[in-house]
Design goal:
Chain lengths: 332, 152
């Protein structure tokens, strides 16, 4: 490990991925890349919490079916979501006979699970690990904001939590895409207190992670075909470009944001774009992975960003700490 | 490292998009005005039919009840939040906004049971309004009591 960056000794490959998203995400610009979508985001359940769990279970089962494995063939599931005590994942794993470890880094959870998973595989003690995260618009609204039916106005900086699950099956033998290195981020808090302005809360941590990554790997932004932050949204995306320029690094057209890609901002009334733990995982495991496999992209840097906010801390006047981890993917 | 960074907060203030005040105010005023007109419409309607049997005060209470009933129905049908997203304060300030802020958490928390879910969360949004309403009415009451002579 050097400058927060891990270089893996073995090739950690992505054997397969699976994504299931909600109706709004399916209508978005990259809707056709998702494996499956649901028409009703309640999935016929009694509560949205149950719906998110069902979505997560279905995605993992679909991933297993797709790759021809049974529960027993998987050594570990590394999962996270946005609900209290990551309860969605806990109930998901009740349905599956796979060892489970829960992880949480808000919307950067997907990167966290990939980094831990890749390291465990690198150690040689594990054969196959599933990394996945989920989020649901309605459970997140309840967790962090107001009741769904409350007639309040969204601020211009608000983002729309994605309803979706993305799961990645990692192993050391099969696959066309490998994780070549990863940078673990530090918590950065510049004092942003507006819980609606998550782009501004997370952009500084994304900058720190990107700078350490470029320094440790001696790479330039041009090295990657695509640099993808998690959910900074349109305004946060522009802010990060500005912040990077301050440090003399220019992010060009190869830089985008999962929150911008997943929705059509003009037509879908989503504020600054998508957000949530499921945003980066569903975009990566569908759109990005498929482009990597078919060769349209060769090197991708995924930098999921997380605003480590809770409703209580925010009400007590705490500012919002941000975190970002970077994972570098390469086509083999 | 993690002290509030004033320069950054300035930059954020300058660069991040802001609300379009003219647009939101226009929406708030026309929707808010429309809701008041609907209320007045009901008032005129009730006065026309019941004016001879009912004092004016009861008629305005009846109008309030009508507006609350309509709002609660619209909240249940998932329409009022869309009106609110468009109009903002225009649909929050009238009595309809208050009704919506009581009905919406009630719907949301119904799944946690009637007592600990629905009832205890019913005023999670509207609670402050009630607290301030009661407190200010007590303060005003005391002032009236002390300076009674001045008001007569």
């Amino acid at each position: 490990m050097q400058n927060q960056t891990i270089f893996f000794k073995n090739d950690i490959k992505i054997e397969n991925t699976a994504t299931i998203v909600g109706p709004k995400e399916h209508e978005g610009p990259i809707g056709r890349y998702f494996d499956k979508f649901v028409k009703d985001d309640l999935l016929g359940q009694k509560s949205y919490e149950k719906a998110e769990t069902k979505l997560h279970v279905s995605t993992i089962k679909y991933l297993l079916n797709k790759s021809g494995y049974k529960d027993g063939d998987i050594d570990l599931c590394l999962m996270g979501d946005l609900m209290d005590e990551i309860s969605g994942c806990n109930f998901t794993m009740r349905e599956l006979d796979i060892p489970f470890m829960g992880v949480y880094n808000a919307c950067a959870t997907f990167a966290e699970s990939l980094i831990i998973g890749a390291n465990l595989l690198d150690s040689g003690n594990f054969k196959r690990i599933i990394c996945s995260t989920s989020s649901h618009f309605s459970t997140a609204e309840r967790q962090y904001r107001f009741p769904l039916e409350l007639g309040n106005q969204r601020t211009p900086l608000a983002q729309w939590t994605c309803t979706g699950v993305g799961a990645t099956l990692l192993n050391r033998e099969n696959g066309k895409v490998k994780i070549d290195c990863a940078t673990i981020g530090r918590v950065i808090d510049y004092g942003v207190t507006d819980a609606n302005d998550m782009g501004a809360a997370m952009a500084p941590s994304a900058r720190e992670t990107l700078l350490s990554h470029f320094e440790a790997t001696s790479r330039e932004p041009d090295y990657y075909d695509l640099i993808l932050t998690g959910d900074l949204g349109e305004a946060g995306h522009r802010l990060l470009i500005l912040l990077m320029e301050e440090k003399g690094v220019r992010l060009k057209d190869n830089y985008s944001d999962c929150g911008i890609l997943i929705f059509n901002r003009m037509g879908q009334d989503v504020g600054q774009g998508g957000s949530g733990a499921g945003c980066s995982s569903s975009v990566f495991n569908s759109f990005v992975y498929k482009k990597l496999v078919c060769g349209e992209l060769n090197r991708v840097l995924l930098v999921p960003t997380g605003a480590l906010v809770s409703k209580t801390s925010n009400l007590q006047g705490e500012s919002i700490p941000g975190i970002a981890h970077a994972v570098s993917f390469e086509r083999i | 490292m993690n002290e509030p960074n004033k320069e950054y907060l300035e930059l954020v203030k300058k660069k991040m998009p802001k609300s379009h005040h003219l647009k939101t105010m226009f929406r708030a005023f026309w929707v808010g005005g429309l809701i008041c007109c609907i209320g007045q419409g009901f008032n005129d309607l009730y006065t026309h039919f019941l004016g001879s049997k009912m004092p004016e005060e009861d008629i305005s209470t009846l109008v309030t009840l009508t507006l609350i009933t309509i709002t609660v129905c619209l909240t249940g049908l998932g329409i009022y939040d869309k009106i609110g997203a468009y109009a903002g304060a225009g649909s929050i300030v009238p009595i309809t906004g208050f009704a919506n802020s009581v009905a919406s958490p009630a719907i949301e928390h119904k799944r946690e049971g009637v007592v600990l879910g629905l009832c205890s969360n019913m005023f999670s949004v509207a609670g402050p309004v009630i607290v301030f309403g009661i407190t200010s009415s007590i303060v005003v009451g005391i002032i009236v009591l002390i300076f009674k002579g001045a008001f007569v």
